[in-house]
Amino acid sequence: MATKTRRWAETDIADQTGRTFVVTGANSGLGAEAAKALGRAGANVVLACRTVEKAAPIAAEIGERAQVRRLDLADLSSVREFAENTPEVDVLINNAGVMALPHKKTADGFEMQFGTNHLGHFALTGLLLDKITDRVVTMSSFMHQVPGLKVSDPNYENRRYSRWGAYGQSKLSNLIFAYELDRRLRAAGSPLKSFAAHPGYSSTELQGRTESFQDAVMSIGRLFAQSAYMGSLPELYAATEPGLDSGGYYGPDGFQELSGYPKKVGSNKASHDEKTARELWDKSVELTGVTYPI
């Protein structure tokens, strides 16, 4: 009789004492659960959040090794300030995000979802890269498969806005970025690693912020979603598991990757298009003004 494969859980996280993690959006949902688990493993955790008051209870639960710092990914001046005042870190977890918002713009005039989910993290990673000693983990979504990416018009200036198309564009951009960062790090002979992860269908505050009737629909859907804690496991796996090959993408092992424990997963053809990746990288540098030291 075949032996059932043991699934990875929080108890498999090695002792993280002395290591420092920056987790964006750690005031609630996936980020909060990841931050708490890292704290339980002995890590120093920087909770990088737009509203520091909301992160205070999470930091208090973690204890003296937690630090709350303000970071507004929708404002590049905030990103730069955060990066300038951040010392060496072992792991950056690009976790924060917004989903399916009505058409809005960031402080710098970018479409809010692309600007927050992708450009904010692109800028943050580039500005911190010389201070990161181990790896970068960037959160994507199974919604990266929703058509929407148009590198020539990422801010919907010349096409009709679609809230779900814009979300799909931002999540595909996250995944393309993680893969392209891996390629560039390896080409430069850097020891740093780049990973991507997704939480499956998890119950978080994202589902209640579309500012439309869909909030009510998704609130019902949350009854069938896995917990934010379970949704945080793929990013924790990518952030802490030793020996992983750079460039991996991790998500839940259940049906359609909607729920379950972490495993290596695949992604759509568009996410592996290296021409698009180079174009997106160049566009991101143009829009943010952030160049990478690799």
Spell out the key features of this protein.
294 residues, 37% helix, 8 helices, globular, Rossmann fold, alpha/beta
Descriptive notes:
α2 (52-62) links the parallel β2 (44-49) and β3. This protein is α/β, with parallel strands linked by helices and 294 residues long. Helix content is 37%, strand content 14%. α1 packs parallel to α2 (52-62). It has an 8-stranded mixed sheet, with helices on both faces. The longest helix has 25 residues, at 163-187. It contains 8 helices and 8 strands, in the order βαβαβαβαβαβααββα. It has a single domain (14-288), classed as 3-Layer(aba) Sandwich (Rossmann fold).
Question: Helix and strand layout, with pairings?
Answer:
Elements: E1 20-24, H1 29-40, E2 44-49, H2 52-62, E3 66-70, H3 76-84, E4 89-94, H4 112-128, E5 132-139, H5 163-187, E6 193-197, H6 214-221, H7 228-240, E7 249-252, E8 262-264, H8 274-288
Parallel strand pairs: 1-2, 1-4, 2-3, 4-5, 5-6, 6-7
Antiparallel strand pairs: 7-8
Structural class: alpha/beta
What's the helix count? 8
> Major sheet: size, sense and barrel closure?
8 strands, mixed
Q: How large, in whole angstroms, is the Cα Rg? A: 18 Å
H and E string: EHEHEHEHEHEHHEEH
Q: Numbering strands along the chain, what is their spatial order in the largest sheet?
A: 3-2-1-4-5-6-7-8
CATH topology: Rossmann fold
* Overall tally of structural domains: 1
Shape: globular
Which ranges are low-confidence, i.e. pLDDT below 50, for 5 or more consecutive residues?
Answer: 212-222
CATH architecture title: 3-Layer(aba) Sandwich
What is the assigned CATH homologous superfamily? NAD(P)-binding Rossmann-like Domain
Strand content: 5-15%
Distance between the termini: 50 Å
Mean pLDDT score, rounded?
Answer: 93
Query: How many beta-strand runs?
Result: 8
Task: Indicate the CATH class.
Answer: Alpha Beta
- The level of helicity is 25-40%
